[in-house]
Design brief:
- The complex is a heterodimer of chains A (318) and B (49).
- By secondary structure, chain A is mostly helical.
- Chain A has 15 helices and five strands.
- Chain B is an all-alpha fold.
- Classes of the chains: A mainly alpha (318), B mainly alpha (49).
- At the A-B interface, helix 1, helix 2 and helix 3 of A face helix 1 and helix 2 of B.
- The complex binds zinc ion.
- Chain A: Keywords: Membrane, Transmembrane, Transmembrane helix.
Chain lengths: 318, 49
């Protein structure tokens, strides 16, 4: 299978997932993608849902002011003397103005509440909108794999489905991945074992080791036998260990896992592990990992000047 | 008298709305709650249908 070089757009991050949604002002169709024109009504009138929340808030406040004016008018109509008309009109206008002054300061604090009520009403439209998004992403896959991936990645921020993850993984496997890409790992983790995902984790371990974190390691540990049943499973696991020796924390947390693949590490990664293990740490000092590292050191690197330098420098620190 | 009744209702209306607005501002609605709501609409209901 030949991989294609692509330029993946950076991932847009938002504080809250719901803020990725936009809604059509015209027909209330939702989208999480970036299309200009509404697939439902054809107009280009999408606005972010937070903007929609402000509009809804302002509209409900306007209704309240109308009620206030209506009560004032009723008072005037039921008045029997000029004095009553003057009092009703005067106090009605003052009270409405007062209400307006209060409302003006409350638009922002009121908006999330309005949005919550509104989503409750719009459930079906929200589901239909996301469904249209998914169809669009799958439909474009044949013509433009990069775009399809970006769409699925965006949809995946709201839709929690292994099918979506598997599709993303299979698309990513067709791309030449580079370190400068805005790649994701934890959002793609599945429950079950998948060879494509295993390959992808191995690739990430090599090009972007900082993405290998706790959740990925738990996945790998859960499925270690399946990894090993792959033709290049051992290399993948060694690459993962090579990635976690960046952080002493992971080595301390998973010393047995590290030990099992220590002898397959390239020299620079092993040197890193060697330094972690030989530093003063009661957790590691007398562990099986320390024994294994000492054995590998004796067998392969005993006369290597890089290792001696490190031994000396740690010796001086003490 | 009905005229003053209307103004009385208006006064109460403005008063209650003002109290509600201030109490809402004091206890703002958490946006995390909206996230939870949206994710559960999309993921729970979509699977069922
Ligand atoms: Zn529309």
């Amino acid at each position: 299978m030949k991989k294609v070089p692509v330029q993946i757009r950076p991932f847009r991050r938002t504080r809250y997932a719901y803020q990725r949604l936009r809604v059509c002002k015209n027909c209330h169709n939702f989208t999480v993608l970036w299309e200009k024109e509404c697939l439902n009504c054809g107009r280009s009138s999408f606005i972010p849902v937070d903007t929609m929340a402000l509009r809804l808030t302002k509209r409900s406040m306007q209704t309240e002011r109308l009620i206030a004016l209506f009560l004032t008018l009723a008072g005037v109509l039921f008045s029997t003397t000029f004095e009553q008309i003057a009092i009703c009109l005067g106090s009605g206008i003052v009270l409405t103005l007062l209400l307006w002054l209060v409302q003006r300061q409350m638009t922002l604090s009121e908006a999330p509440r309005q949005l919550h009520k509104w989503f409750e009403k719009e459930q079906q439209r929200l589901i239909d909108g996301l469904r249209l998004n998914i169809e669009a992403a799958i439909g474009i896959r044949q013509q433009d794999e990069r775009l399809a991936y970006e769409m699925l990645r965006e949809i995946g921020t709201l839709v929690n489905s292994d099918r979506n993850r598997l599709q993303q993984i299979s698309l990513l496997r067709n791309f030449v991945l580079r370190r400068d890409m805005d790649l994701q790992l934890e959002s793609l983790l599945l429950f079950d074992f998948d060879e494509g995902l295993a390959e992808y984790i191995g690739e990430i371990a090599r090009i972007k080791p900082e993405l290998i974190k706790e959740r990925t390691l738990l996945y790998v540990l859960d499925h270690e036998p399946e990894f090993l049943s792959m033709a290049n499973g051992r290399e993948i696991l060694a690459a993962i260990v090579g990635a976690i020796v960046r952080m002493k924390r992971y080595v301390t947390l998973y010393p047995e896992f590290t030990r099992r693949y220590a002898r397959f590490l390239p020299k620079d990664r092993f040197l890193r592990l060697f330094r972690i293990v030989t530093a003063d740490d009661p957790h590691l000092q007398f562990s099986n990992l320390a024994t294994e590292v000492a054995e590998i050191y004796n067998a392969k690197y005993q006369w290597d000047p890089d290792f001696h330098q490190s031994a000396q420098s740690t010796g001086q620190q003490r | 008298m009905i005229a003053y009744g209307c103004i009385g209702i208006l006064f109460l209306f403005v008063l209650i709305r003002t109290i509600l607005y201030y109490s809402h501002r004091k206890h703002p609605f958490p946006k995390e709650e909206i996230d939870r709501q949206v994710l559960s609409i999309i993921n729970d209901r979509r699977e069922r249908s």
